[in-house]
Amino acid sequence: MITVTVTKTLGQFSVEASFDLPAKGVTALFGPSGAGKTSMINMVAGLLRPDRGRIMVNERCLFDADRGVDLPPERRRIGYVFQDGRLFPHLSVYDNLTYGMHRVPPSQRYVDPRQVIRLLGIDHLLGRRPATLSGGEKQRVAIGRALLTSPELLLMDEPLAALDTARKAELLPFIARLADEYTVPILYVSHAWDEIVALADTLVIVAEGRVTAAAGLETLVADLELHRLVGGLESGALFNAVVEGHEQDLTLLGFAGGTLRVPRGGWTPGHFLRIFIPARQVAISLDPPRSSSFQNILPARVDTIMENGDGLAEVRMAIGCTLPARITQCALRDLNLRPGQNVFALIKSVGISPVAARQRPWGGEVPS
Amino acid sequence: MPAWMLTPVEIEALRLSLWVSGWAVVCSLPVGIAVAWLLARTDFPGKALIDGFVHLPLVLPPVVIGYLLLVLMGRNGIIGAWLYSHLGITLAFNWKGAAFAAATMAFPLLVRALRLSLEGVDPRIEVAARTLGAGPLRVFFTVTLPLITPGIIAGLLLAFARSLGEFGATITFVSNIVGETQTLPLALYTLTQVPDGEGGALRLCVISIVIAMAAVIASEVMSRRFSRRLRGER
Description:
The structure holds 2 protein chains of 2 kinds. Chain A is of the alpha+beta class. Chain A is built from 9 helices and 21 strands. In chain A, α2 (93-99) packs parallel to α4 and α4 packs parallel to α5 (165-181). By secondary structure, chain B is mostly helical. Helix content of chain B is 78%, strand content 0%. Chain B has 11 helices and no strands. The longest helix of chain B has 34 residues, at 8-41. Chain A binds chain B through residues 45-47, 72-80, 82, 84, 86, 88-90, 99-100, 103-104, 128-132, 145-146, 149, and chain B through 122, 124-125, 127-135, 138, 142-143, 146-147, 149, 229-232.
């Protein structure tokens, strides 16, 4: 368990953060640029001194203003992956990777260099200098370097933000695999929603230097109110699914509410996926449409209806799990929806984002 | 004896010059790095004063520096007397004094080169090293120092060249004693003051040019090799 309670005034701006991280899994610190996310993790890393507060990692006190404890960064046992990589230009990739590892007593090391090198796919780069690496390769080395210090907590400050879309897509699975493979808790700073859906287990939402919400990702994603409070956060349904098989150009995914058809992906049956269905991709019908392009037609029951001020309405349906739909209030009146009513939820296959990233199911239950 | 052969006095002057300049740069390098680091990385009251003080030898007539050294570091000078009674070191009128004079005159050049190089090192890379478990001292030796290698090479070359050419402060502080303080420029000067000295003066002149060229080429080769390494070429 990691507990952070800190306050810091930076000129006109003040950061007042208080959050807990579970001792494993990925916690995302999400918020717009300038919300104070980097300041918060710099305080955790010991790069920025809080004015007041306390930082505890697994019973170990890193900072306590009242007791005068303030460990320097090199004694915090926290790995830090910076947005800009910050590799040592004068050292080879291998020497970069092992720079921090050599400072850790062998008894405290739990990360094997060969395994990390294989996991990150950087075996062919070991003899090269950072100047000859691509942006994605640099970032992979930076991740390996931080991980090889066998940290008790791994901080990642928008590690994909400096990369283009293709590089980002290439790197995301590596980070996900790492989160699956190692038990080290990861605090992942980002303002990119797709990264968070792919990686996070827990979400901490930050705005203007304050923590505005913190909970499991599924809980927060389903919170439709939150969507209006935080820009950039897309509400929808997020759940675990397992690959059942393929059918022509579709892949069948089993989840708590039945089977979903999504565009065919390269997964093998039995593979776990995270599924994200944005609320705006879900339509509602009173009768099962006989002929339509919707590949997913699921019987559902209306749970709650929420009318927003912007002419839209959020309808939350139960399909074995919760599925929110965003429709216009006009459509709501036409269908005359009422809570408890039996309807059909329609989802286009291409509207579903199966996030291949994290392989293990999270949040407990595995779909049967 | 052929005209191109050096006389023993000239050989001694050459040997002494290399010896004095070598010691001057080797001893002033650590101090230079420390001062350059203070000026590049820290902010403290009176920094401008220190900065100005370091640059004095660059702007003052060398004779003035030599005279100041004589007054301060001579056997009866404030610092010189203390050095002699506590450490048994005498600087006046020996090669150590010549090295000290050369180091003093070359110091601003050394510090300027090092400071420029230090300011080019991204402090964020040093921060990254801290998060990887290295304390400030280890960061300095494993990250900062290797990254300013080109600056060290350039600074050493400049300082070495300046030391080889040092004249005014040396002759004022430690005089012109053959085999003890008569470095190459002093020997050259002496030769121009005696009849039939043109041959010797010319030989020393050629040697000065050869040493200077060799030093410039060596530093160029080394810094090129270094930047190739940083770019990842073999």
